[in-house]
Amino acid sequence: MLHEETGLWEKGYSRIAGVDEVGRGCLFGDVVAAAVIMPQGLILEGVDDSKKLSEKKREELYDVIMKEAIAVGIGTIDVKTIDEINIKQASRLAMKLAVEQLDPAPDFLLVDAEQVDLDIRQMAIIHGDATSQSIAAASIIAKVTRDRMCREWDKLHPEYGIAKHKGYATRQHREMLIEYGPTPLHRKLFIRNVMVMQQELF
């Protein structure tokens, strides 16, 4: 998990930030990105792609990462902006905002399968959250942050089950959309086809 970081440290980079986002494929809510700079050589046991970890383990690792990290940045982009600029651009903007929050600033970025629109040397890694500790740490911070947001959104719209499915297009979520219609936190472009397809089933 430190292969890429080790190579960069050997080249003289000292503040390597892992960058990842979560919520890109959801029908509901903000997209959230995180950027994390970990100390050189530090190995975090258990850190992995956030999707492979239990909620309890993610919460535990979130606390460890926040304690050990040199810097952490979080960027969120709301539903209105997602609908205006599309989810790909919104995800990239969230990543940019997350990186811009880092203090000290990074000298290299490891990004999960994306490019950050900043003049900082960077590398996009396919499935980076499963192969780079820095990106995995960012994925955990982003996931826990958004899951906590989902629990708050669930209080506003309890009938949709957001705390359970986190806004993804589960069967329950699709059926609730048909029954109750979309909320202001639903992504209009995302739900249009889902609602048409769901209605065709009835």
Question: What distinguishing features does this structure have?
Answer:
Nucleotidyltransferase, domain 5; RNaseH_sf; RNA-DNA hybrid ribonuclease activity; 202 residues; alpha/beta; hydrolase; RNase_HII/HIII; elongated; endonuclease
List the helices and strands and how they pair.
Elements: H1 3-10, E1 16-22, E2 31-37, H2 55-68, E3 71-77, H3 79-85, H4 87-100, E4 108-112, E5 122-125, H5 133-156, H6 162-165, H7 171-180, H8 188-200
Parallel strand pairs: 1-4, 4-5
Antiparallel strand pairs: 1-2, 2-3
Task: Give a brief rundown of this model.
Endonuclease that specifically degrades the RNA of RNA-DNA hybrids. The chain is of the alpha/beta class.
